[in-house]
Amino acid sequence: MCRCILTARPAGATRGLALKKEDMPCHPVRKTAEAEPLCEVQHLIVELEYPLERGGLLPEDKARTKDQQVQQFFEQGDFGYVKARRQELKTICAPSSPMDSHLECSAYTRFCRGQNIMMDFSSLLTIPQPMKYREDVIKEGQIGGRCQLNKKLLKSMGQHKSPLQSWYAELEHFTELPTEPIKSGKCDVVIDKPTFLMKLDAPVSMYHHFCDFLNLYLTLHLNNTFTRDVSILMWDTNSYLSNFQITWQAFTKNPLLYLGPYKGKKSSQSDISLPLDPRGGEDDPHKTDQ
Description:
The chain is α/β, with parallel strands linked by helices and 290 residues long. It has helices at 66-77, 79-88, 151-156, 168-171, 206-223, and strands at residues 90-94, 102-105, 112-120, 143-145, 148-149, 175-176, 189-191, 195-198, 231-234, 257-258, 266-274. The two termini are 22 Å apart. Strands 1, 2, 3, 4, 5, 6, 7, 8, 9, 10 and 11 form an 11-stranded mixed β-sheet that branches. 17% of the residues lie in helices and 16% in strands. Residues 264-290 are annotated as: Disordered. It comes from Cordylochernes scorpioides. This is EOGT.
């Protein structure tokens, strides 16, 4: 595992974290929003003990040397994976001015983030329960922003459409809006605090639920921000219940939110992140079902 816990980040990005200096990065702290590269393979502090004759960690891997094997491990099971997802980021909806909306995603919409995004939860009033694994929660005209949408690019990212593999089902109907969501006056709720929208696997299981926590942790690195003053919004109309609830305190100092109170309402998300999902895609080594 890499020792480089954090990378260069904006001032205040780690506010509220109880970390010692020796647990901080091997990169210097800079007051900049420009992300430096994450850990590199040479920063690994645990020697990989894996027989070379077995190749790589995945059946299709063909490592012929120990260096190749270590590199594959770094790319599949360490911060090299985060680096690859960051390099995949593409702008789905581009702003024309600073107050416009913005949406960008990694490949297959496995991770996305946006600003000033409108989401309409009217369908929650009629959708049968449970709804958290449904793919028809957000319909045509129920999500969008004031920005220039690349429809072709968005459509090309739908190959991993599945409840716990990507965010495509929630984003496929994204549309351009004529006005900023907040200024339109049509939003019932405005969420200003940075928000992580979580689609959970199985909170009753430690094995499955910690995939949620691990992927949220990786998402913090993708965002290059580390603060506990954020909102965690569960993609579920039922309130969260789990024996592992205390684990969320590592990520937020605020109460956990859920979709129940938003039924029938339009919301404007000033800063929203759609984290890596717990089961990833077919080529995702972090998927829980093998």
